[in-house]
Amino acid sequence: MAETDLFPTNSILSEHKKKKRHREGPDEGHVEDDESDRKRRKKHREAGDPLVAESSSIDASAAVKEKKKKKKDKTGRGDTSADVAEQQADDIATDAPGETTSPKEKKKKRKKRESEGMTGDAGMAVESDVQHAKDRKKQKKRQEEHPIPDPLANSFTASFDDPVDPSAKQKKKKKSKAQQPVDASSSSLLSQHVPNDSFTAPEYITLPNNPPSFFPGFPDLTFDGSNEDILRTLQGLDMSLMTGIQSTSSQPPAHTSGSAVSGGESSKKKKKRQTALALTQSSSSDITAAHAELLSSKWLSTKQLAELAKSEGLVYKKGKFSAIEAKQVDDALEKYKVTRGLSEDSLNALIFPGDGQRKDKEFWAEITSAVPQRPLIAVYHYARRAHHPMKGQGNWKPEEDANLIQAVASLGQRWQEVSSRVGRTAADCRDRYRNHIVNRDKRVFGVWTSEEEAKLTQIVTEMQEGKDLDNDVFWNVVAEKMDGTRTRAQCRIKWTDSLSKKYKTEGASNARWSARDAVMLIQRVDALNVRDDTEISWKNISDAEWNLWSGHVMQRRFQTMKKGIKGYEDMTHSGTRHVFVTPPGPSIRAEEIRLKCQTIQSSPGPSPFFLKREVSDRFEIGTNSTLITNATILVGKGNETSIRHGDLYLDKGIVKAIGSLSYLKQANILNLTVINANEAWVTPGLVDLDTHLGLMSAPFMSGALDASSTKGPTLPWLRNIDGLNPHDEGMQLAIAGGVTSAQILARNSNNIAGQTVIVKLRQTSEGSPLSMVVEPPDNLNKSADSTRWRHIQQACGEVPSEYGNRPDAIWALRAAYARAQNIRAAQDAYCRQAEANAWDAVDVFPENLQYESLVDVLRGKVKVTTQCQGAVDIDALVRLTNEFEFSIASIQHASEAWLVPGLVNRTWGGPPTIALFATNYRYDSSSYRGSEFAPRVLTDAGITVAMKSAHPVVDSRYLLQEAQRANYYGLDSFLALASVTSIPAAAIGLDHRIGSLHEGADADVVMWDSNPLQLGATPVRVWIDGILQIPLPPRIDRDSAINEGIGKEGEQWRRFPSVPKWENERKKAIQWEGLPPLMPRKQGGNIVFLNVKDVWTRKGAMRPASNSHSNLVNITVKGGRIVCFGDDAACPLESVEESLDLDGGHIAPGMMTFGSSLGLEEISSEPSTGDGSLYNPFIEPVPPILNDPAALASAAEALMFGTRSALTAYRFGVTSATVSGTSSGDARNIISGLSTTISTGASHAMERGAIIQKYTALHVAIRRPDPISKTRQVSVSNQIAGLRRLLLGWETQETDTKRWFKKAAEGVIPLVIDVGSADIMATLLILKTEVENQLGTRMRMVFSGAAEAHILAPEIRNANVGVILDAKPGVGVWDDRRALPGLPLTNDTTLAVLFKEGVKLGLRCREAQDARNMLFNLTWAMLASNGVIKKKEAYALVSSNLQDLLGVVTEDVGDLVAYAGGGPFDMSSKTVAVISASRGVVDVF
Fold it and tell me: In this structure, what DSSP letter does residue 314 have?
């Protein structure tokens, strides 16, 4: 409904509206500039058009006043329209005047304005209004002295075809100016229009100030005051009785001479018609029928309708056409076309007559008769708008805005001409320009400041003193007074939905919608007795006793309540009304109950209008628009993911357009940032379905660990947001990896760990955890829509073992859901009693705050995330869902799901999304059968797969690498990208706004320096909600400019990578249920490798033995050694037992891994599969039997060969491993003992070459206390003191500890120290110097980990200390907080800084199951160095350099690895064999 008065009066404000509208001309389909309007009227007047003549005769003086107004307009008079809706002439309500203001009030306001010294546009407007009021007052006095007839009376007798007699005009000019009074009883028009039947009174009626006898059915109803007061009085009545009341009325409304004022019309300019129609007494039903006949046969202007409403009690409807009325008009048009055999073009010719053609009176009268409450002019304009050829074009697009700006710049505000250029209706062009284009450069969006709120309140209250603060506001004027920084719509909504409430409650702005409000609303709507929701005037529902809520709020609340009715979509208004009607009894309580019952039954999901939004709810004020041009854009969702070349426009926090948008660069859009992508890949922001970000905050500290609770197995009442730390440094690192949204999960140490949230990772201006949440549900934000998804997490299987075994876990879940099921059943029974009006049986609504989230799970309002890994766990989960009938959104860590896809498909409600790692398995018994082929197998079975990080298990920053690896092992390229974008977004119910790029989606966008599936792909820019996050804003401690893309030049980096074929391996994995044989096939005879592109060993590249010009050669191997290198002639194939085609592949040295427990254990969380824990002599006594103060142990005594992690690493080119007593970095053991170097492909320790070096290095760890450990820990100073004592030989007994630490001090064996802090490293460098000076030796000290080593790079080089780093920097403890993260946050990594400084470097791997990914990690480290480190230098970091640092001595050549299909750094390659000279064999895979 348009925001305007329903009842016409003669207020100054309403006259001001009418004058302004008369200036603007007609609307919607026939908007014209003033010059063309004058020409048209003159043309029709000369042709004798009765309509024009009639209009001219009614108000000739208006032309004179119009000229004065135009003159003022040219001097700068502003636009004073009250609303966009008020600008549409087809909506009759928009032309209605305002409420009546008494002369005393007018005089008071006029004096106030004059005392305030109003000047400029506002002053001119007030001046004009005051003068107009004076003119009307004088005219009224003259009319009282010389009564005149209604000037409309004669004009109504003219038919459509009556000509205007020019001679009659001349005769009238000679008549006397004095008019003879006419009896009011003879001045009614109704006797001329008395049809055979009557019609029901419409919803909105116009009533004169007549006595209460007009409504005999309501004897107490009085009408003292304005029409607005009348409306308020009628709100409480049963409007359905109105027809009966009118039919029993004995007297028609009295006509008074004073009610027929011609609006200030001068008798000097125009004579009044003398002839008056004789009125006859008619029944009220005749009067009602006469109204219908009159409305459908006469072209009555707004002014004429208003005067007839006052003088004759004319009943007519105004405002927006309801859905029923719209259908009535459409049906009437179709009937007219069919009955007359017209074509569509012929019908359109009647609706849109050409130039010079007249309107068909019969046609329009028949169409109007279909909606008897509507005036003919309203039906005319509605039909023209509804059937306009340019209608229904939807939201304005950026290119249309640009065209509109250009058209107005060249044509001015001549809207008809502008329309033809833009391709929109003239009214659309006008409204778009005035309401969205003007002041766009100054416009502000987002949260209102307190200063803005205060200013708006002051403007509205001053302008509307004494008036209705909700409905009588000129919002265009308000927007102007706000200096154009806020649109009229923003001002209106802010006032009506927020500030008005605060103003009415004198500052108590925390009032919330209550059950009583719902009851009042339902009662008011029911009293209206309308046929359809669209007939409800929401802004006029309230009254003096209940006026806290705006019409906008009430409409939204009513729609929300309707959604609570099952099947409401298929119900009529009367049907929903029947459900809402209050039965006899305590009405407020009844409606409160019904509202509660409807709310719990509502379905979650986005509004159908969500994608049509203009501004994101997350938009931050001051954010520039962004145009990304010439991009390769990833669009679509899931299986429909594809690429599109073009441009991307981001504005107000959303994606506004995708396609060819070059015109925007010429559109002069202010605050527009244009970025040429140069065909770079642009994707949606990545979505991580499983992280502990904010709950395990980096750097890890005990005070910021809120990821688990010890209060019981089932805790559905806990909420993760209550522990979410928005300052987690891991969030910025995740953004650096392209992750923009994440689900925050607690650790799965409970069967039900609580309610989760989905957050955007950027820092908000508010800075609160809640402001980061995407679509916070109503239990977090009471103002939110109850249809938003909620989220909860649960677990089964071995993980929550703290509270029992697997049966215990499932029983805990069943018991919790059984309790929730009972609560739901009680609620449903309660609601059934309410629906049956059994109020005596209804007491307190049954609910439980602890289990309400599980009740919502059973009602389908919650997305459930479950961790279940093994097939046994998944089976129990599937049975649980079918028992209690609830669906699962995703299953996390589902390591064995790929083995039972049919079981997964039996989940109640359909198969969930399976969230997986790419290769991170065998960390516990349930993940032991996990496979790198799982994503492909599940996808082939029709189950959606999402890759996840489980941060910090895998840093969320490296989420994309999980997708890259899944693609490497066979997952389709587009599905791999969807697995970290649209698929996880859909699993959490937010794919309408995140995870994909489409118009209306959130502006979460990532631009990459290469194809996202290429190893090392790095974000160049990241936007979240349209706000640039990467690169970081300038700061004194940051690099001034980030140089990305070095080493990624060439077209091949823009393409999807080629990957190997894995069909055989995948089939074998399925056949063996995840445990296929891994031992290689040994070949000791002659074997030839064909089509080899490159060969290099530790000594360097090898040269072919012939002068062949071919780029590919053959390699012959015998007994594990290369015996021939050349072409077919040089290396004949005679007596060859086997040949392997490398297809342009390479042969390179085998890699070595260090830093993990590989070779000492099979499953890290299973003590029975490993060595166990070493004694820590710093905190516990060493048994005497060991006779060693440090209980120094050697890893050689606890080796395990043939583990799956070792053999898998061997198959990927990692041929050796150096392992110590405990994994590096384990702070529980300060002295880790002696390491051993082994062959990863050996079967047992006694096999030839299995143990490469029994004693490799001595290992210690110097770190600050572990933030997670609950046990007593040793101080750093005590650790250093103990190390000094051992190195200086102060141990008196001849023990292993003394002997090996002496060797370390003398440099016989390397001393490898696991350390992170630069401060501790500095202390160790000083200690090294001290030991060397005292003993006269040169120690071989190596720092392992060393995240902050770049701070001491020169000192480390000068001390001749080597450094072994993690291949990829990540989040960690306090000691590691100053690590250099690399691109796109810093130009350098710690590795690059140390490399440039000349420090001897190697790389380590901390997880045994991750050793297989050495080449992936190495490639990332090389590319992250920004071109500093080349391929051969990078390869040395995991081969020769690492061996040198650890003191590993091998044969001259060592093991060699054969890669087919490419080199070690190519994703197209895979390992096919290992050539082992030390063992005299070739291992073939």
Answer: -
Following DSSP, what letter does each residue of 1326-1354 receive, concatenated?
HHHHHHHHHHT----EEEEE-TTGGGGHH
Amino acid at 964: Q
Q: Determine the average pLDDT of the residues in 929-955.
A: 96
Q: What pLDDT is attached to residue 28?
A: 39
Are 1125 and 1442 in contact by the 8 Å Cβ rule? The answer is no
Q: Which pair of tokens denotes residue 438?
A: 């003007």
pLDDT: which is higher, 127 or 1160: 1160
Confirm if 37 and 131 have CB atoms less than 8 A apart: no
Q: Which amino acid is at 313?
A: G
Please provide the CATH number assigned to the domain covering 398-438: 1.10.10.60
Question: Please, which residues have CB within 8 angstroms of residue 243's CB and are 6 or more apart in sequence?
Answer: 200, 201
pLDDT, tens only, 734-786: 999 999 999 999 988 899 999 999 999 999 999 999 999 999 998 887 765 67
Taking the alpha carbons at both ends of the chain, their separation in whole angstroms is: 75
pLDDT band per the 50, 70, 90 thresholds, residue 230: very low
CATH topology of domain 1151-1453: TIM Barrel (3.20.20)
Q: Give, in degrees to the nearest 5, the angle at Cα 477 between 473 and 482.
A: 110
Token pair, residue 1103, equals 């040269």
Q: Are 869 and 795 in contact (CB under 8 A)?
A: no
Report the pLDDT value the prediction gives residue 975, as an integer from 0 to 100.
97
1197-1232 as b/e, with b when 16 or more CB fall inside 10 Å? ebbbbebbbbbbbbbbbbbbbbbbbbbbbbbebbbb
CB 539 within 8 A of CB 522: no
Q: Which of these, 799, 166, 91, lies nearest to 381 by C-alpha position?
A: 91
CB atoms within 10 A of CB 1065: 18
Closest CA to 1408 of 1171, 1150, 1059: 1171
Q: How far apart are CA 538 and CA 553, in angstroms?
A: 9
- List 1087's β-bridge partners, or say none: 1117, 1138
Given a contact cutoff of 8 angstroms between Cβ atoms, the answer to whether 679 and 686 are in contact is no
1081-1150+1454-1485 fold: Urease, subunit C; domain 1 (2.30.40)
Rounded Cα–Cα distance for residues 819 and 825 (Å): 10
- pLDDT band for position 507 (cuts 50, 70, 90): low
- What does the H/E/C string look like for 1087-1128? EEEEEEEEEEECCEECCCCCCCCCCCEEEEEECCEEEEEECC
Cα distance between residue 854 and residue 860, in whole Å: 10
Domain boundaries, the chain: 12-221+228-312, 398-438, 801-862, 1081-1150+1454-1485, 1151-1453
Residue 326: φ, ψ to 5°: -60, -40
- Which residues make Cβ contacts (< 8 Å) with residue 225, sequence separation at least 6? none
The DSSP bridge pattern shows strands 1113-1118 and 1086-1097 to be antiparallel
pLDDT digits (tens, 9 = 90+) for 611-620: 989 899 999 9
Check: CB of residue 538 under 8 Å from CB of residue 552: yes
398-438 shares its CATH topology with 1081-1150+1454-1485: no
Q: What is the DSSP letter of 1158?
A: B
Per-residue pLDDT tens for 426-452? Answer: 888 888 888 788 887 787 877 788 888
Percent helix / strand / coil, the chain, rounded to 5: 40, 15, 45
Neighbours of 126 (CB within 10 A): 19
- The predicted structure's pLDDT at residue 1084: 82
- Average pLDDT, integer, range 559-585: 67
How are strands ordered across the β-sheet holding 1251-1253?
Answer: 1151-1154, 1214-1219, 1236-1239, 1251-1253
The pTM of the full predicted model, rounded to 2 decimals, is 0.69
- 948: tokens are 């996840």
